[in-house]
Fold this sequence. Notes:
Strand order of the largest sheet: 2-1-3-4-5
CATH topology of the largest domain: Rossmann fold
Helix content: 25-40%
Number of domains: 2
CATH class of the largest domain: Alpha Beta
CATH superfamily of the largest domain: Response regulator
Structural class: alpha/beta
Radius of gyration: 19 Å
CATH architecture of the largest domain: 3-Layer(aba) Sandwich
Largest sheet: 5 strands, parallel
Number of helices: 7
Order of helices and strands: EHEHEHEHEHEEEEEHEEEEEH
Shape: globular
Distance between the termini: 47 Å
Amino acid sequence: xxxxxxLDDEPLAxxxxxxxxxxxxFLTLEKACLETHEAQSLLEGKNIDLLFTDIxxxxxxxxxxxxxxxxxxxxxxxxxxxxxxxxxFKLNAVDYLxxxxxxxxxxxxxxxxxxxxxxxxxxxATAETENPETLFVKSDYKVVxxxxxxxNYIESMSEYIRIYTDEREKPVTTLYSLQRLEARLPAxxxxxxxxxxxxxQKIKEISRFRICFSPKALIPVGENYKEKxxxxxxKHGIL
Length: 239
């Protein structure tokens, strides 16, 4: 079951989408919100898996709202403006529904979210219980074993993540949620950007809030993550 909320400043749009969601058996609608602060309170206080959100709203732009969240859920954008699509997918959105959309469009987007949730929960339990130093992931129709300490950083690419390690020339790509993976990693792994988790023990240099693993691997530290990042650096440094 996927717990979801709706965010839209138009009451009629909220009502229509709520009716669609009620027709989808694997979705549970927690609440329909007219303002971003109401949605943010729910996201902070409840286990919300999926957010349907408008973009053009008076109190805060929907894209800006998602960027402001430290741990955003899966997102489906619902808007009348197609020009926001590229920005929406840069935020790893599950889907982008252009108003007015039909029930079938909503169902298709919800099924994509269900698939993401299902696959993100399919990593074997042995990764956490029997051997916490090992992670098994599905990649290219195979199950790949990764030593956690070999991971340099992890990048979110829409529905997928890429895991960059010392052991492989190319990253391991798998369908999984960055947020769920973050919860399974040791404390020295830190979310430094909405699209990146880094192994703090593998950092070589930091310059102007860009983390260097190699000349070609420069990871930006997001604005919402700088304070926590610098706190870690000060705690483990001689600054």
